[in-house]
Amino acid sequence: MKNLVIFGAPGSGKGTQSDLLVEKYGFDHISTGDVLRAQIKAGTDLGKTAKQYIDQGQLIPDALMVDILAATYDALEKKVGVIFDGFPRTIPQAEALKEMLSKRGTGVAAMLELEVPDDMLMERLINRGKTSGRADDNAETIQKRLAVYHNQTAPLRDWYEAEGIRHAVPGFGSIEDINAVLRAVIDTL
After folding, report:
1. Does the active-site annotation cover 157?
2. Which listed residue (14, 51, 124, 166) is catalytic?
3. Domain parsing of the chain, residue ranges
4. Active-site residue flag, 104
5. Fold entry, domain 3-181
């Protein structure tokens, strides 16, 4: 079983590429954004708390996210493996994910990083906001999210590099070309 972390800034294409990899290989897919949006839509206490953080462009507290992900992970069939999309976002989260998976007799096989310049990310996210209606895809919130990414999330590159499982790929160009590079990495695992 191959558990993967798909990594990159907001708007880097993590969800799009995850969907294609799920289709190709049969991975289960845990998107923290989708999980949180479902909680918000359902109006749960977790959803209400999460919405406050998201509306401010901030990250959800680690303990809360790890508990949600562990429950979500345990409910999956995990025939091929799981793609973690949007988690971890900090080194403590990466350590918690490693521990959570270790307790289940597995680990992360690879971190797939989609590298995209900030100006391209801003353009993508503003366009996504126009088509999807996502309230958090506006210029002010996007700038906050990118600042949080660079300050808190980007250090994960070095952490996964030290683990020996970081694979950086260009996250721009055609969706098909990006996916071909990701598939080539997965096929070597």
Report:
1. no
2. 14
3. 3-181
4. no
5. Rossmann fold (3.40.50)
